[in-house]
Specification:
The protein is of the alpha/beta class. The chain has 14 helices and 18 strands.
C-alpha cells in the first residue's frame, strides 16, 4: 500500500476518496495518540489553514478528532504555514497542523504536521501517526473529552514576531501579491508596520480563488501591475505563504535561485553565512552554482523538497537553503520555509546594498531552462529503462561539455513527471525538452 504522507503531508482532492472528513477525523485522533506516546499528558495541537473553502470542513473534522481523543485543538484560523510553526513554539504545544495544498489548484487540499520544535515531522514520525490511524484505542467520555478553542490573535502574534526582528526597509515602493491565500491575513499589517510603501493585489480571498491567476505560480498579474504602477519591485506569495518570488521594476521574474544567491551574498557580507555553505536542490539553475562558486560559497545539493533541504542544512550546519520555486529556509530566523521572512530579508538586503532588484538579481546569470510537467503515471518512471537509457546518455555528453543537463523526477503530490532541461544554447533546450517529453508521454501514457 502506498504511503499516506507524501513530500509535504497528506495531499489530495478535498472531500475525495483520500482526503476526506473521515480521514481528517482519524488523523486528529492519531495525532493525539502520537503526542501521548511522546510524553504529553494533555496534548495541545495548533491548527492553521489557508483560504480554500474545503479548509473549514477539514479543520472541523480534524479538531473533532483531537477533542474526541482527549486533546485540545487550538484553532488559529487562516494563517500562513510558517505562522503555525511559530505558534507551536510560542504555545509550547505538542504538535502543529496546517490544512493547505500550498501552491496547488483550489480543488486540492492537504494536512501537514509540525513537531513541538516548529520543524515538520520526520518521515518516521509520520509513519507512526499513519500506523495509529487504525488503532486509536478507547476513546474518553465525560470529563476526559477534549476541547477546541480559537486563537483569535494568531495573525497579530505572527506579525509581531516578524517586526520584532528589526529589519531595515529600503526607500522603495512595492506591489504585493497575496495569491488570495493565507498571506492576505498578515501581509497588509506587516508591510504597513515595517513602514514600506506598498499596494496589494490578490488580497480578496473568496474560498475558491486561491492561486487563481495570481501568486507565485502566476507572476504575470504581478508583472503587469508593477509596470503599470511604476513600482520598484513586486513580491508574490503562494497559497500558504511558505514561498515567495519577485519581479523587478520591468516585470522580469526573479526566481528562488536568484533570491538565494543574493541572500547568501548578504549573509556572507555581514559575517552571518555559517560555514560559507548554502543548500540547494537538483532543480537549481547551473547559473546559481556558478554565482555561488564565484563568491567562494559551497553549494550542497539535495533532492527536491524542503524537508531534504532542511535535513542537509542541519547536517552541514548551514543557515540558508532554498529551492528555485521560492521556498527559502533561513534557519537563523525560522524553522521552515517562510515567504514573509524571505520577503523582508530580501528588502533588508536591498536596503544595505542600495541596488535595484534587477541589479542584485543579475548576480545569477541563468542558463536557459525549461520545465515541462507531463501528465503521466509517475510511479512507473523509476523502472523504465527506455527513458533512462536515453536520458543517461544525453547527460553524459552534457556533463563532458559542461553545456547543460537533463533532470527527470516524479511529482511528490500529483500524477506528473517533471522534465527539466538546461543548456547554454536556447535552441538545444527546446530540442532536448521536446524529445524527452515525447518519450515520457509515449512510455508512461496519460495518468
Amino acid at each position: 500500500m502506498a504511503r499516506l504522507f507524501g513530500t509535504d503531508g497528506v495531499r489530495g482532492i478535498a472531500n475525495g476518496p483520500v482526503l476526506s472528513a473521515e480521514l481528517a477525523l482519524a488523523l486528529g485522533r492519531a495525532a493525539v495518540a502520537f503526542a501521548r506516546e511522546r510524553g504529553a499528558s494533555l496534548p495541545e495541537i495548533v491548527i492553521g489553514r489557508d483560504t480554500r473553502r474545503s479548509g473549514a470542513l477539514l479543520e472541523d473534522a480534524f479538531c473533532a478528532g483531537i477533542a474526541s481523543a482527549g486533546g485540545v485543538a487550538l484553532r488559529a484560523g487562516v494563517l500562513p504555514t510558517p505562522g503555525v510553526a511559530l505558534l507551536v513554539r510560542e504555545q509550547g504545544a505538542s504538535l502543529g497542523a496546517v490544512i493547505s495544498a500550498s501552491h496547488n489548484p483550489f480543488p486540492d487540499n492537504g494536512i501537514k504536521l509540525f513537531g513541538p520544535d516548529g520543524f515538520k515531522l520526520l518521515d518516521a514520525d509520520e509513519d507512526r501517526i499513519e500506523a495509529l490511524l487504525g488503532a486509536p484505542g478507547e476513546l474518553p467520555t465525560g470529563a476526559g473529552v477534549g476541547d477546541s478553542r480559537r486563537l483569535a490573535d494568531a495573525p497579530e502574534r505572527y506579525v509581531d514576531w516578524i517586526v520584532s526582528q528589526g529589519f531595515a526597509m529600503p526607500p522603495l515602493r512595492i506591489l504585493v501579491d497575496c495569491a488570495h491565500g493565507a498571506a492576505a491575513t498578515v501581509a497588509p499589517s506587516l508591510f504597513a508596520r515595517l513602514g514600506i510603501a506598498h499596494e496589494l493585489i490578490g488580497c480578496a480571498p473568496d474560498g475558491v480563488n486561491i492561486n487563481d491567476g495570481v501568486g507565485s505560480t502566476h507572476l504575470g498579474a504581478l508583472a503587469v501591475g508593477v509596470r503599470a504602477g511604476g513600482f520598484d519591485l513586486g513580491i508574490a506569495f503562494d497559497g500558504d505563504a511558505d514561498r515567495m518570488l519577485a519581479v523587478d521594476a520591468d516585470g522580469s521574474d526573479v526566481d528562488g535561485d536568484q533570491i538565494v544567491a543574493l541572500l547568501a551574498r548578504d549573509l556572507q557580507t555581514t559575517g552571518m553565512l555559517r560555514n560559507d555553505t548554502v543548500v540547494v536542490t537538483s532543480m537549481s539553475n547551473l547559473g546559481l552554482h556558478r554565482a555561488l562558486a564565484g563568491l567562494g560559497i559551497r553549494a550542497i545539493v539535495t533532492d527536491v523538497g524542503d524537508r531534504y533541504v532542511l535535513e542537509a542544512m542541519l547536517e552541514h550546519d548551514a543557515v540558508l537553503g532554498g529551492e528555485q520555486s521560492g521556498h527559502v529556509i533561513a534557519l537563523d530566523r525560522q524553522t521552515t520555509g517562510d515567504g514573509l521572512i524571505s520577503a523582508v530579508l530580501l528588502l533588508d538586503a536591498l536596503a544595505r546594498t542600495r541596488e535595484t532588484l534587477a541589479v542584485a538579481a543579475s548576480l545569477v546569470k541563468r542558463f536557459p531552462q525549461k520545465l515541462v510537467n507531463v501528465r503521466a503515471d509517475r510511479t512507473r518512471l523509476a523502472g523504465n529503462r527506455a527513458i533512462w537509457d536515453v536520458v543517461d546518455a544525453e547527460n553524459v555528453a552534457l556533463a563532458n561539455s559542461g553545456a547543460g543537463r537533463i533532470l527527470l523526477r516524479p511529482s511528490g503530490t500529483e500524477s506528473l513527471v517533471r522534465v527539466m532541461v538546461e543548456h547554454e544554447i536556447e535552441g538545444e533546450v527546446e530540442r532536448l525538452c521536446g524529445s524527452i517529453t515525447a518519450l515520457v508521454e509515449r512510455e508512461l501514457g496519460q495518468a
